[in-house]
Design brief:
Chain lengths: 308, 337
């Protein structure tokens, strides 16, 4: 058996969709009930790390709109999906950050084996704006410092694994890896939690050497965009490897036996210090009924794989 | 003399609340619901004509939504449930679970009614194959391309063929997903060409909210068998008056279209459909004049909102159209037309 977890935002139930559309009075209690249900499903699937399903988040960045100096801007497409997020404009200091994420998670509902999802600083700065930090480098570093405060608060609350979602690193043809490294150093230096950089929405085959050099505990790949053959070419000795094998962008359920066989093969070739099987990205791209099936399948796959 | 800058809508308008109350009421008979839909269609046709649009439809008043409506009538799809577009907005996404097939012309009654009742020219919006595929889960076809081409050949082509036989002179293939995946532009191009193959009518392609400012679309424009593209531009433009590059930043790409050898018409979006702020006629005028100069021939410019106006209230939508029509008139005055 290997470890497992899901990445990102979960889909809302039909009841919750209706309630959000109507801004129902009992919305908070419905969110709470929805979170409890999804946490129970993750436990039932015996996932290695359990996450808050983030049902009350409109997008992965939106909680930061609560900062004093941040204002909401236009709708933008999430890479090449049919989902949109709101751009944020960071127009002042970020000294009031530090508890934004933790205060937007149902920490008390989560078991001890808890993980949290947060955008990596390069991606964060890549998809938002700032009138204060005019240079991209400056903005990225300011975001990294802000996120480090956020992550420290999460680690204090016993989050043992931090997923750093990094679609811009995967998607963008040109990436300033020097800047990525500097920003990730701020995030991970001396941190007492595992950090996995999740790369999706783009094939990272040609970026693999640079990715393996980054100061994170491990890398996570979406195998619908980065071929398994590219991952298998590299040694993950000294690193963690998360294989995003369960596809959150298609309702078709993965074949358990095929996945187990493939994962055993990947692990034997790459020899990571620790392996995980995960969703490739947010389950919110599926309706709830299908997302639940995928979570359960994720657990079944993890159970069948031989650990390294 | 040819009238420059004909005005048109893109498709959808918000449905009147009285219509929704009728169609959602289980105690109202099918006949009465059909009558209410006809009344709403007549209201939209008459309103759009009175506002002065040259080319109209019925605000898609009978359609649930541009994706869900056709999918209901295509064999091979099963609805999976709602997924988020943004915030608290969702759409009902379907799975392709078997071979795609065309069951019937699902726009036939709607088109016949409009043809009978409209005095102005009609443009029929039809959801395109690429968008239908891109917005669905493919569980059946080996590749996305296979699914797109199956939809083009087996659904969109027979549908537009039927509409042309019924007398449709202008058909707009709605492809909001067109530029979502820059690497798939050839699939998109082939899907449109397969959809219109052998059909003798005017084809318009509508695309919007391009993540890459239509740069991936530009090289394909001359290779696609469409006479006109209706595109969103206002959303990415400034609100200041002027016909210079700085103020008209949303329309720069038209020059690129020309560089790639595009010789057809462009329906320029001059109205942002995601804000309530009404464009002034002077702003619309400047957008038109800039676009006409960029393409090099005023006869090639048509004027429309960026996209369907269904996300705005009816009052706001009609005010935006009114300003658009006035702006086109001002632009005609400037060039002495």
């Amino acid at each position: 058996m290997i470890s497992s977890y899901t990445v990102g935002i979960y889909p809302r139930s039909e009841e919750l969709i209706e309630a959000t559309r109507k801004n129902a009075k009992n919305l908070s209690s419905l969110y709470l009930a929805g979170k409890k249900e999804y946490i129970a499903i993750q436990k039932k699937a015996n996932l290695g790390y359990v996450c808050d399903p983030l049902l009350d988040w409109d997008d992965i960045f939106r909680p930061f709109s609560k900062l004093k100096s941040v204002k909401l801007e236009a709708l933008n497409r999430v890479y090449e999906t049919n989902t949109f997020y709101r751009k944020l404009s960071f127009d002042g200091g970020l000294s009031d950050a530090g508890n934004i994420i933790r205060s937007n998670l149902a920490v008390s509902l989560l078991p001890k084996n808890r993980a949290a999802c947060i955008a990596d600083p390069y991606t964060f700065a890549d998809v938002h704006l700032s009138t204060k930090y005019k240079k991209k480098e400056e903005f990225t570093i300011a975001i990294a410092k802000m996120l480090r405060k956020e992550i420290d608060a999460l680690v204090k609350s016993s989050f043992g694994l931090i997923q750093l979602v990094a679609p811009s690193i995967a998607y963008n043809a040109k990436v300033d890896f020097g800047l990525v490294k500097e920003a990730l150093n701020i995030i991970t230096r001396g941190l007492k939690a595992k950090t996995v950089l999740h790369l999706y929405f783009g094939d990272v085959s040609k970026k693999m050497e640079k990715l393996l050099d980054l100061p994170v505990s491990g890398l996570g790949f979406d195998i619908t965009s980065t071929p398994v053959s590219s991952i298998k070419k590299h040694s993950f000795s000294g690193k963690l490897l998360a294989v995003g094998m369960v596809n959150s962008y298609n309702t078709k359920l993965e074949d358990k036996a095929e996945c187990i066989l493939e994962l055993n093969n990947i692990i034997s070739k790459t020899k990571p210090d620790e392996s995980f099987v995960t969703t490739n990205f947010d389950l919110q791209y599926l309706p709830k009924e299908f997302a639940v099936r995928k979570i359960l399948r994720l657990g079944e796959i993890a159970k069948g794989v031989k650990s390294a | 003399m040819h009238k420059y800058f004909p005005t048109q809508e893109i498709g959808s308008l918000k449905k009147p609340s009285w219509l929704l109350n009728v169609v959602k009421n289980p105690d109202i008979s099918k006949e009465d619901k059909a009558k209410a839909r006809n009344d709403a269609a007549l209201l939209n046709i008459k309103t759009l004509e009175d506002l002065g649009l040259d080319i109209i439809y019925d605000g898609e008043v009978r359609r649930v939504e541009m994706y869900e409506e056709p999918v209901r009538y295509i064999e091979g799809f099963e609805f999976a449930g709602r997924v988020r577009s943004w915030d608290n907005k969702y759409y009902n996404k379907a799975r392709v679970t078997s071979e795609i097939d065309y069951k019937q012309n699902f726009h036939s009654d709607e088109f016949k009614f409009i043809k009978e009742n409209a005095k102005h020219e009609i443009k029929v919006p039809v959801t395109g194959a690429y968008t239908l595929a891109d917005w669905s889960y493919n569980e059946h076809y080996k590749s996305k391309e296979d699914l797109v081409i199956a939809l083009a050949k087996k659904v969109v082509r027979p549908l537009v063929q039927d509409l042309a036989k019924l007398g449709a002179k202008i058909i707009q293939i709605d492809e909001p997903a067109a530029t979502t995946h820059p690497a798939e532009m050839e699939i998109f191009r082939d899907s449109v060409n397969e959809s219109v193959k052998g059909i003798n009518t005017k084809f318009v392609v509508h695309a919007c909210f391009s993540g890459n400012d239509y740069e991936s679309l530009a090289p394909e424009l001359p290779k696609i068998k469409a006479q006109q593209y209706t595109l969103e531009f206002a959303n990415r433009d400034s609100w200041n008056l002027g016909v210079n590059d700085k103020e008209r930043k949303g329309y720069h790409v038209i020059k690129l279209f020309k560089e790639y050898g595009f010789k057809g018409e462009i329906g320029i979006g001059v109205t942002d459909v995601h804000v309530d702020k009404i464009e002034t006629p002077k702003l619309v005028r400047d957008r038109i004049l800039y676009a006409a100069k960029a393409i090099g021939d005023p006869a090639k410019i048509y004027v429309n909102p960026d996209c369907g106006l269904r996300t705005r209230s009816r009052t706001i939508a009609f005010e935006k159209i009114r300003a658009m029509v006035k702006g086109a008139e001002l632009a005609r005055q400037v060039i002495g037309n």
